[in-house]
From TrEMBL:
InterPro entries: PDH/Transketolase, Transketo_C/PFOR_II, Transketolase_C
SUPFAM superfamilies: TK C-terminal domain-like
Record-annotated Transketolase C-terminal domain positions: 33-156
Name of the protein described by the UniProt record: Transketolase C-terminal domain-containing protein
Lineage: unclassified sequences, metagenomes, ecological metagenomes
Pfam families: Transketolase_C
Stored PANTHER family: PYRUVATE DEHYDROGENASE E1 COMPONENT (PTHR43825), TRANSKETOLASE-LIKE PYRIMIDINE-BINDING DOMAIN-CONTAINING PROTEIN (PTHR43825:SF1)
Amino acid sequence: TRAVAGWTGPCYLRLVRTGDPIVHQAVPDFQIGKAITLRNGNDITLIASGGILYNTIQVAKQLEQREIKARVLSMHTVKPLDAEAVLAATQDTEAIITIEEHNIIGGLGSAVAEVLAESGNSHIAFKRIGITDSFCSQVGSQEYLWNAYSLSVEGIVSKAVQLLKGMSKRKLA
């Protein structure tokens, strides 16, 4: 909130409910437009924003049990997007997945897709995970909706494994 207060120009700040798990164990070096690396890995990069970030860390832990090392980036700002962090992921990992509690059109996934398309890095596997191009027609708890829209930890792990299986010769459980 301090960064937003000091920002000159329009800004949008999304707050999550109280009681959500703490993601940052220490106060991060927060800069608008700069991703925060929460976990290092060289197989796949998971880029998330907002309340789904805790799930993303749990996904990385489950992938590690399958011998898949996941980098986790907290992309707290979509505009400006940290294109440098995205492009570094194309050099260091085999795939990128964006994860958001949002429609996949016009959000974090779209912004990352634009960076990838304009960079010419066609070798990287890429997937956007979020709400498909539809309106949310269900009502329930956050956990219920995560399950309904395949945003649960298990749902995301499954999609990550499928993506890597489709492009890699390694055997994945």
